[in-house]
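Thread: "does anyone have the structure for this chain?"

Original post by V.I.:
We have the sequence but no experimental structure in hand. Need at least a predicted one for the grant figures.
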Amino acid sequence: MEAIALMSSGRSQCDADSNSDIHQQEFLQESRSSCVFVVEDRKVIGIMTERDVVRLSAQTQNLDLLLVSEVMAHPLVTLRESALTDLFLAVNLIQQFRIRHLPILDEQDCLVGMVTHESLRQVSRPIDLMRLRLVSEVMTGDVVCAASDRSMLAVAQLMATQNVSSVIIVEAIGNETSLRRPVGIVTERDIVQFQALGLNLNSYQASTVMSKPIFAVTKEDTLWTVHQIMEQRLIRRLVVTGELGELLGIVTQTSLLNALNPTEIYNLAKILEAKVEQLESEKVTLLENRNIELESQVHQRTASLSEAEKTLQKLNQSLELTIQERTQELWQVNKLQRAILDGTDYAIISTDLAGIIQTFNAGAEKMFGYSMGEVVGKVTPEIFFDAQEVSDKAAKLSKILGKDIGVGFEVLKYLAIEGLFDEEWIHIRKDGSCFPVSLSVTVLWDDSGQIIGALSVTKDISDRKQAEQIILQQANRETLLRGITQRIRQSLDLSIIFDTACQEIQQLLQCDRVGIFKFYPESNFDDGEFVAESVVDGFSSAMEVHIHDHCFGEGYAAAYAQGRMQVVNDIDNAGLKDCHRDVLAQFQIRANLVIPLLCGNNLWGLLCIHQCAHTRQWQEHEVNLIQQIAIQLAIAIQQASLYAQSQQEITERKQVQQQLTETNLQLARATRLKDEFLANMSHELRTPLNAILGLSNALKEKLLGSLTESQLNAIGIVESSGIHLLELINDILDLSKISSGMVELKIEPASVQNLCDSSLVFIKQQAFQKEVEIYSNIPQNINKIDVEERRIKQVLINLLSNAVKFTPSGGKVSLLVAIGSGDTWQGEATIPRQIRAMNSPAIVFQVTDTGIGIAPEDLQRLFQPFVQLDSALNRQYEGTGLGLALVKKIVELHGGQVIAEGQIGMGSCFTVVLPYKMFGSSAPSTDMTDANRRSIAGNSGKAIAPLILLAEDNEANIATLTAYLTALNYRMIIARNGEEAVAMAKAHSPDAIIMDIQMPRMDGLTAIRLIRTDPQIAAIPIIALTALAMEGDRERCLEAGANEYLTKPIMFQQLNDAIQQILAQ
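Reply from O.Q.:
Generated one for you, tokens below.
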């Protein structure tokens, strides 16, 4: 689109009133805007014309996505500025290649101008030849037309398919469907302007875009009239109309250009000459007739003789004037013809029917070495042809045509009749030298259509052939180099590479020895040896010979390291040092070619070419080729070195990889052992705790009988200790799972109000007992936050519990919430400086207390596992030191952070910062209501107590759970492994099953799956129990078929609620 914009911006409008200077400027601007040249590094590499825009428009391609390089014409037909010596050279190129833009280049191949139809028409303006040619002789009768209601896209497609530069918009004349009147014209320039404006071609009709009125001429007008109208109106084409205004044809600048064809000019000159001869004959006949008439009149009318003589005198004067005018015109045409013929480097030769040369221009004299007087009227063009070439082509044509076409000039005459254009021949000069030419031959016709002779146009193509030969030689060298390079690169083994290179070079150059010399490291380039060689028989080998040449190290090495090479045609006359010449003579060397092998900036060795039998004149192309091969050898040396290094690195990497694999296996084994240890520890600790807490709970609830006050206190201590131990186990397992990356958060929208309220419920009793005031502030209309509610509640309970624990009686613990970013916050929480600096939306949970406080230097150790700041505090306040470490891990899993602040005796402040969506779609959080707890008495009112199957292998747990559930009026049956559980379920069809997961012989998960596959018992509800409490246990149990999942140690109320729930379902 940028190229189209450049064309469009240069367009000028037709203006009939413009003066000549403005016309000239508009002409130049119009020529420049008809195309865009594509230039790279100041070299013309392509052209995009208006016709290309029409073609792309017709294809309805998206021009915004196309690059100029995709649509430009390449390569280009160009002409050097120095070669533009005559008008018809440019005319011939434009007509031969059917182009409308001919780039003119300087000697550096840079664009200096261009030749177009417009510029040729301007240059040819003084040529009076156009005054003698009529429109009917050159007009094109086959005109591409379209109706005015056709779309512009259809018009563009018509231009593209018919390969024309314009479409005439026509309408029918009256009821005559065969007669069409031109009403407008659409050109390539209109399509370009459309694309530059970004308009849709399919949305506009031709009638809205066509240029009108349209300029027209008649068939009888001269080409000079056409030229004047085009120049005055700045247009490129005129329509030809008849008496009724009907369309007969079209005249374009190409039509005018064809009128300048040398052949056409020559034919026209012949026609004019024939007309003059006809006039002279008519004059003589007329005079004779008049004389006869006058003689008769003398006898009849003597009296009127004087008057008749006067009339005859006037007639003679008129005839003489007409003949003089026609003769003058013929003289001007002949003069113009000779100027044209002599102004070109082409050889233009014409002959009569007998083959005798009639025209021989200055270009022919220069090309063949003959003068015009030596050949005109004397010889045939056979003297310029190679007889054998003519004979060969005659035999070839005779075979193709199946008839004999003759020999000598008859062959050339036959080719002229058939039309010979730009065919390559060999011609012979007067001095006998031969040269290649491009030959075009055609016949000459008179007015009656009879052949009167032949015309040939010959161009010397010696320069082109030499250039082609140079290019061919260069291509052959490049092909040879690629072949040698390919064979060198087929291996990374230097010995194979060197041997291959030596053999290839020796065969290529036909020299006596080719060797690759390597310097010894640390020898200062004085010592080395040949590592590869190819030598012809009769000359000694240089292999396995230690070579010492201190002259090289002192006088030559530095230059070779800079890329210098040595080309010696004769070592005896090369001015070499004696010590160096002695080394060369040792190997019978008479001439040599030495190229350095450079690896980076280091001189690795030398590529040596030796001629031993005689001296040798090394050719430039040989030197260039060997230089290229030396470069490839240097690359091969570097690649081989890199390959060796890479092999070493690969070996080392494999060793490291093996070590890493072994380390990973050890880590995996350690992780598995740790997981097994944690699972076993969880099971082994939770199983006895289940009995301890269960029986304690049953005794406190007096399910096993009445207890004294001291016994209840003792049971309370046991239960409290068990709960503390359970919390310790849970914290250790949680911290371990989070640290090992085994925890995946279940993120869901959660109410901030509910999070805070449910967390405060857990510590209110503890605070009440210590007489610690609890204060909270949560702003209204806070959006729900995306967290795992259980984990964040665990964080808040941990922080609140610590605050209550370390706050003395009469103190105060606060839970404050705030939302905001930067310096704008809603809520009572004090926002730390680093949080304000983040300037991103966040929600802050802040727990403050008025307790014992924390020293600033101890803040960094707060979040380390199993660490308490003071052993005295450890004795005074129970705890494992895991709570804050767990808080930090959980918050960081949510993408947040925890900030601790405090002073000794001044209390402490813990701030939890989590990401927050200020404009979330979640509804604001609402207050949580307390859930009604179910009564402990579950089945006292039922007529038949539910039957419960307990599958458990631990006797203590069996006794505890049986005692508790029996006290609640449940009937109990016991299975001690999975197999018994399945069998008893089939035998008794219990109302519910309590299934322990870890049991001997058959585990609980397998037993659940078997039960679910038996149609008779598949519907029995199952509660799964496990002491592992590992990540994923719940999902595995529910997937196996359990209805509910509980972890040991079990809270009896929780178990009863679960039983009641599944029985109700």
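V.I.: this helps a lot. DSSP finds 34 helices and 35 strands in the chain.
O.Q.: and Confidence is low (pLDDT under 50) at residues 12-18, 871-881, 920-943.
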